[in-house]
């Protein structure tokens, strides 16, 4: 069961609901987002039937959710019509806008990061991505600059005025990453690292949750539920390609995930064509496909000198290809009734 | 090796090339399309090295092809820049246009087929699809009307003035289907039915070749090569979703296939979002994604009364959803530099 | 619904049942195997409810089958306890025995075929496999010797006294292949070539049906149902590996298929480790795994000179590796309560 | 590059090698196992060429490893012939023995754990498995007893005299779990949780590393390399089924993984048929298949009262089915030249 609080409900109202649930023998999970506060209730059939919370102060609605994920389910949002908009440092990601997120795969130097950030801004990006902690398949590959990378990102943010999205790979690092970042990213390999999900759920920062390599939609939403259950409803889902049998591509971008997950959940969904494709010449066609399928945003790698990149240079956009992406981002979303997030930041 | 003939090369020129190849100990495969005639050469390294066919009458160019598929390879077309345009009853499918193909999954009655054809035409379709021979997983399911269905299709073609695309499932039926149809379709389950591929290769009709359920790009192009090797280069490839681990969707539309196969081959590529999705509410987002990824056309199911359809009614477009598709087909392709095939037929 | 006839039921009895079904408005499909004759009934709920066939002469039992496949369902066999034994030229394949089938992937010459057949017999094989019609991904690869290959197989059969299993790839070839072969094989790529399935269903010969590359158990059994529906219940299912994401192996042998399909159907199930592995050093471990999982037989490629084989030489067993296989076939099945088919032929 | 130390090499010898490597500009990773100590070297081509470490005290051999995983590669073990044996509380897992690991999926109560442990021992198990920290797809599912569960496991170990294997899901928990456990298990969802891999690498305890849901063999071995790189070479790999398209089974046990990974790495490989199957009636056939494919051990779930289990009761063995497993474990490994680990513990 989920109890939806009114937009103006006070902390006292929320506490009252929690106390009421506990007095009836249930467990309460408060999840706060920019747009709504929701209280999830877990308990036996008896508890749920006798709860009768509809009349409590600040409560808008109570509803039984049949999906195994409760707090992130579209059922508690009145369906797709009221999907959620998340704000990251003032920049919206949601159903009415289109948000471009761009930046280097890995932060290497201040110069490279600034170069990439300027490229991102020129292409219409309103959020800057960049990795300081890099999960790599090989222990001998470049693992990122760690906190030094976070400091570079923060300096560039001040210079280019773009809020930053960066990955956190270990629960022990959540506090330090949250100090610098505007949005925390959970990578594909960590989608079911439940300790990490709970830690970012407690962090108070918006979270971007990438889909696991062969995660089903339900498993992906259950991972989001772990974050929401610890109090954080500001979650953006990111489709980045799934593992397939096809040897010619790195991953297979599952564009069906965009409309499907938007029907199942009220959370925004973006696509990452760079990591799906793994090669520059596929990024723009896949970005266009993601936008056309209804994605709320796109995240791409850019790099001023892809040939010397320490990580995934083959997929980083540069030059003409980046111009093509900028054009797609400018022209396609309006056809689908969206405003560019570029004009809405602040 | 592939020998490309000049647009105006005569049959005598082509015969001369074939004789020359055979005299040198090689095998020759002549493949004719609307836009070009190509002669494939198979032989030992010795044969290929001593062939020296560049100076023969009517020969434009000779080239070694490293891909295992020769006649359909992009290498013999000077790359993506000179991709092929196929014509079906005068309607183009190729890089400069965008072609909508629509119609009922299965032909049931003249009234239902006419109703669907009129819906198709109103939505902007320039080709009519419809199945008279249906390959079904169950031997107890409706297997199509057979030749009676072909006759209905032919009558409706005369009435609505749309050339027809219809599936052939058995080599023994190719002649009768080719009598009625403007384009022969090879279904997913038959992508490696090599006898059938060779039979449609000899038929002289344009062929639409659907991708197998987990066929790699290379296997798909090798299947096209079987058709081309029997003399027919008028082939359109159709991506229709691949089998995946995700239980919430019937098949996973692989939009990467569109730009990838357009790089590997000179043949047109379209997408079929209806059979990928298996449900009406996903068809338009997937159609948009396919168009945006660069497809040369889209094929969809329509039905005047989906709830009584004998085959795949759940995915047939109708009413508002069909209007949405029509709008996507009208607005997206021009953004990508394409003209609607509707204005070019004839 | 399925009507099971008594072992001694006469043709008149069967005709009586068919007439009775048709008189009640149903369709009847008679399917004959070595062990039983079954009549499938397709019709509306009304037809099935009023049929009342239990008392007709020769009828043992009538039962409603909930699986979409009727004639091949385990439900009509009283469960796994009464699984079917098929006989191929006198050699049994079924629950009480273990059958080794071996031979060359492709018939090349009489000498090579005889060499392979002698190797097969020494290793304990009681059936000889060999391909005269080869479905190949490339139109330029060796396509088999055709009827000349069948003649070689027939000669070698006389010489080594092993019944032969050989593939048929086109419905038009079924009659000629059935003239020579003791068992017809349907390959992976043709599992849903429904015209071919129906043709072998009418042939009166036992059929080996390989699983499609990503066919579900249900689709595989529906393909078997197509054969059974045309009158032929002597079908052996062959698991030969499925397509996967793992680049280090050609296909992934799905050993779960063996016990699962044995629960769903009364038909025998064997495994083909050679085509799954694609490399010699994996064949014996996979053969052992298949035997241990409960397979009713194993089919492997052998070749006297693998390095010169025209087809799949890399997976053909020879020398020590074949000896290892022979030992596995001799020692493992008795542990699982099976008798070697070698001692039961005739 | 990998430098193999002599069995009797002293710490001073190892330190000397490390100093030598660093003096030449390389990085050194010391990895210690029961059977060998290996020093991995990472550096530029120049460093590797000029290193010349073969003559240093205690060095047996230096070799260049072409695989991306170095310390766990079969290349540094002289091939499959010298595969490693790991010891867990005295119990061997390796090429000469066969080890059964059994116990409850989750520790629930002392009584349930004791019951399961006694069942395990009667079936021939020499190691006891049991989960105190359970990674669950749903945040609302039973998450394990935590340290209280570890204490139960430790008590039961004393009572039944079986060393214990238990999962650790968070790097922060490694110390406490290592205090109680004889072997640490890394679960499927955490195969690429690199912080956790490094933490167990530093723990000094043997590690069981389950394969990720669609991890390639190379990714799996790279995950093992993360553990080895932090100093720990006592690693056992566990195949537990991969995600597939087949809806009738939970996961598809990839038996090819056993011989393939044994060729690629010197580490032992076991299979977990319980989690692959997800249903009791498949566990024994799959266990037999794993043994026959050459696995060094099998791990299964048992439970005294499966119908009340808090986790995965449907797959827990009990009664006759457990007896069947015990028989398979007793009879199959000797056929393959293995001794039961039951007789070798101590």
From TrEMBL, chains A, B, C, D:
Keyword line: Transferase
Entry-linked Pfam families: DAHP_snth_FXD, DAHP_synth_1
Keyword check for Transferase: yes
GO molecular function terms noted in the UniProt entry: aldehyde-lyase activity; transferase activity
Family annotation (InterPro entries): Aldolase_TIM (IPR013785), Class-I_DAHP_synthase (IPR052899), DAHP1/KDSA (IPR006218), DAHP_snth_FXD (IPR041071), DAHP_syn_2 (IPR006268)
Record-annotated DAHP synthetase I/KDSA domain positions: 90-329
Signal peptide: none
Domain DAHP synthase ferredoxin-like: 1-66
GO term, biological process aspect, one: aromatic amino acid family biosynthetic process
The keyword Transferase belongs to this UniProt entry's keyword annotation: yes
Protein name: 3-deoxy-D-arabinoheptulosonate-7-phosphate synthase
Organism: Jatrophihabitans endophyticus
């Amino acid at each position: 069961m989920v109890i939806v609080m009114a937009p103006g409900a006070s902390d006292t109202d929320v506490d009252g609901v929690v106390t009421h649930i506990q007095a009836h023998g249930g467990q309460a999970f408060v999840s706060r987002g920019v747009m709504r506060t929701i209280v999830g209730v877990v308990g036996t059939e008896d508890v749920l039937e006798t709860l009768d919370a509809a009349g409590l102060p600040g409560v808008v609605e109570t509803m039984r959710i049949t999906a195994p994920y409760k707090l992130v389910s579209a059922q508690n949002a009145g369906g797709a019509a009221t999907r959620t908009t998340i704000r990251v440092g003032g920049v919206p990601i949601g159903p009415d806008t289109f948000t471009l997120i761009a930046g280097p795969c890995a932060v290497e130097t201040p110069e490279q990061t600034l170069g990439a950030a300027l490229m991102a801004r020129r292409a219409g990006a309103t959020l800057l991505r960049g990795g300081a902690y890099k999960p790599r398949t090989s222990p001998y590959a470049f693992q990122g600059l760690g906190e030094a990378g976070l400091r570079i990102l923060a300096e560039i943010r001040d210079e280019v005025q773009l809020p930053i999205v960066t990955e956190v790979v270990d629960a022990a690092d959540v506090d330090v990453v949250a100090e610098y970042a505007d949005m925390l990213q959970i990578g594909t390999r960590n989608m079911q690292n439940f300790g990490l999900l709970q830690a970012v759920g407690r962090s108070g920062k918006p979270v971007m949750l990438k889909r696991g390599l062969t995660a089903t939609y339900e498993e992906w939403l259950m991972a989001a539920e772990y974050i929401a259950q610890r109090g954080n409803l500001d979650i953006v889902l990111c489709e980045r390609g799934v593992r397939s049998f096809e040897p010619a591509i790195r991953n297979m971008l599952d564009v069906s995930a965009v409309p499907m997950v938007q029907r199942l959940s009220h959370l925004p969904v973006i696509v990452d064509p760079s990591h799906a494709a793994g090669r520059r010449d596929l990024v723009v066609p896949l970005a266009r496909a993601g936008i056309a399928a209804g994605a709320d945003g796109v995240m791409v790698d850019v790099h001023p000198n892809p040939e010397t990149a320490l990580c995934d240079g083959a997929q980083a956009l540069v030059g003409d290809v980046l111009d093509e992406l900028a054009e797609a981002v400018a022209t396609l979303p309006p056809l689908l009734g969206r405003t560019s997030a570029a004009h809405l930041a602040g």
